[in-house]
Amino acid sequence: MKPALPGEMSKEERLAQILRVDQAGEYGAKRIYAGQLAVLGKSRSGDVIRHMAEQEERHLRTFDDLLNQRQVRPTLLSPVWHVAGYAMGAATALMGEKAAMACTEAVEEVIDAHYAAQAAELGDDEPELRDKIEQFRAEELEHRDTAREHDAAGAPGYGLLTAGVKAGSRLAIWLSTRF
Description:
mainly alpha
């Protein structure tokens, strides 16, 4: 991480921001999968979704622990992500298994870029956190690939659906970074 210039946040403030937004993202992912499982839990894709949800739960526990260890508050928007994540998961699942997979694919593409940028920014200043982010990034890419294998592109309105989910994901990142 580069040293702060006058008017910029300190390394500690930036690190807190990174932890806060990542914890929020993993919480949102947990809620998306909860919404999908409420609709598709007994479908043929239920076990696939459940596996991805379990990995997201592990990611969330890691970031919860890091927030506690480093005394960083979570985002103030957690109640919003609680409802919005579940609603997005349930809504896409109600559109069908392919739409749920398209949601997963879109979210994970945004997270891939987000985590890659963070890992590059952290560099050797925070090697343990960087490595954990890279590990989680690899698992998120597995989720993206799983969604593709389950015909995410066959979802009704695929282009519009994924564009909307990506825009929402980027907005959630932007907001959670600031609040």
